[in-house]
Description:
- The chain is mainly β and 212 residues long.
- It has a single domain (4-204), classed as Metallo-beta-lactamase, Chain A.
- It has helices at residues 116-122, 140-150, 173-177; strands at residues 4-10, 13-18, 21-25, 41-43, 45-47, 61-63, 73-80, 91-99, 102-106, 127-131, 154-158, 184-186, 191-194, 201-204.
- The strands form three sheets. Strands 7-8-9-10-11-14-12 form a seven-stranded mixed beta sheet, covered by helices on one side. Strands 5-3-2-1-13 form a five-stranded mixed beta sheet, with no helix packed on it.
- β8 and β9 (102-106) form a beta hairpin.
Amino acid sequence: MMSVQIKWLGHSCFAVKCGNYRIVIDPFEPESVPGILPIREEAEMVLCSHEHFDHNYRAGVTVSKQPKENPFRVTDLSSYHDDKQGALRGKNTIFLLEAENMRIAHFGDVGCMPEREILEQLRGADAVMIPVGGHYTVDAAGARAILEEVKPRVVIPMHYRSEKFGFDVLGTLDEFLQLYDLDAVRYDGNSLELTPETPRQIAVLSCPVTGA
């Protein structure tokens, strides 16, 4: 069966795997995000949406030197980290990964509604990873507005806080869940096996916290 594994490593960091090829997105510096285990991963590729310390810790990922065929088509889509066209926090890259006839988007620290042509490229994605905590990014309402344009099948919230992890200034997951009208599925672990048959849902993955 065609599948892509999406694993949440905390905050905005994910490992996306197809076959034996693994991409880590937005690794964060050790102890930079309260309550979350440090990034110590192996992968074939590292992607960073922007150059802030909680998204660009490439040293946390050992990149394989063994040549492998990359099953992913990766498209960089330019956006902004704020609602002032980057004047406050600069630019942000949305990554669109395509493999196994599925489309997966990681929104990085998107801070406003992307341009219309970018929304068109993302529309109907099989899965999206999107920040919902506000302050540095779109908040719950902003995430909802983007998702209503994109209409993805699976929504994976990121960049929020709970009692155990995350920056104090961020909003909670519940603030988003109350706004977005889609069933939430809470996973015991921190990974999701995405297939063409995965039902529409908000996939709430478990965060790898310290002291667990």
